[in-house]
Known about the structure:
2 copies of one chain form a homodimer. Chain A is α/β, with parallel strands linked by helices.
Amino acid sequence: MNSAGTERRVAFQGIHGAYSEDAVYKFFGEGIRTLPCAEFEDVFASVNKGDASHGVVPVENSLEGSVARVNDLLLEHDLTVVGEIIIFVKHCLIGHPDVEIEDITRVYSHPQALGQSRTFLSRYPQWEKVPSYDTAGSVKIIKERGDKSEAAIASARTAKEYGMKILKEGIQNSHQNYTRFFVIEKTASINPRGDKTSLVFATKNVAGALYACLGVFAEHSVNLTKLESRPRRDRAWEYVFYVDIDGHLDHPNVSGAITDLVRRASFVKILGSYRRAELPSEQE
Amino acid sequence: MNSAGTERRVAFQGIHGAYSEDAVYKFFGEGIRTLPCAEFEDVFASVNKGDASHGVVPVENSLEGSVARVNDLLLEHDLTVVGEIIIFVKHCLIGHPDVEIEDITRVYSHPQALGQSRTFLSRYPQWEKVPSYDTAGSVKIIKERGDKSEAAIASARTAKEYGMKILKEGIQNSHQNYTRFFVIEKTASINPRGDKTSLVFATKNVAGALYACLGVFAEHSVNLTKLESRPRRDRAWEYVFYVDIDGHLDHPNVSGAITDLVRRASFVKILGSYRRAELPSEQE
């Protein structure tokens, strides 16, 4: 992290109040300046151009799976992963300051958040559910419309951000709803305090090639904690593999495994080393 | 496929016109009866209860990645995969029968389809973009509203289904937008004509366990065509692996590999064997 504290600004996708901004504050502290971006592409571009010192992007969610677009962008760009953040996703029903849950007739949110709150919403079959672009944006919409019978589903912090009221907290169906984020930076240096490393590789298109590539980790006693395939965007039905391993890139076992992997794979790209994030409790 | 032709009915998620229904027709032919379901859960339930003879569910998309909820449901249920379908996703701008593109001021669609048509939509910055639950549903919405300045983004077949007009065909940003579907059935028998097999396994939680499990495929000369990890819903930070391999389950190499895998893995679940689908051309 090569920026002075006062110059730091962290780009994220969404508007103020978004879960991604929660992740920014969790990693950098409440005082950090944030830069809301319309698209994931804009987060990467802001960090590349120096408009932001860092970016924070979601890479996987425990219920919805990996965020494909972000994983593609990590491969396309040369930014370095310097941190990992895990946040517990707790949806809240949010309304105008002086209303009660009985006053509500219409609820806005992203289709995914509406789906993740289905069990709660099924208790109010008379409510109209209206899809919107994102969770935080749905709070902004109901505030601007000013209709007190309308509510939105978003994070607790969004309610505070827009001066709105939490009518009901923790309305998500599952209490195993976690999102994992990467902190990205335009730097060539690997975070020296990392105890976990992420990389991407592609295999040459022969039977057993993936097994041969994974063999390097077993041979060097390096523990794989994640392995995921993504189709190659440039070649139909060939795959790239996203791998997380225990240990810093400078650890002799890790560097030994990578040295062997480079010889067996079609390409290898190190995303970065970083400190492992702890699984947060629901109370956070 | 154990149902008589006349009794067949295929469940899919969405309303008539959905891309999933395109996949149904591609596999079963245009004459098949279809059963629209609100949620993926309902597709699995319909097949389980016998309301439908088969279900068709999306498992991965070339741009958006795997469909996490469907992969979880394949693991939770005991339905058998008997077929694979790949369709090319071609978004169309759809309006009322007697309008031209110049008349449009507002466009409805699922946020993903709006995002996938961003390049085209950026030519019309004055258009209001309105998110909706699904692509086919957005055509139904504009038809019911009857406002001729409104358009929707969905498949060509949806326009036909609702008697609406295609204003512009193929407006998606990428021409590598494919969705892969599984055909599921309540049967204990493996499709004898399959040349590809899908299965799920979990590793015992020890270093090198994944490598040891994958070794069975290399040792038996079985080619892995896909490998994807998903978090275990019941155990935080443990993973299950979704694997596709070349060959039918009855092939001696495949059955040999599976026999060895069962000894090394925490569990193994065979999803089914099926005929490999061809990559469709854009013209379809």
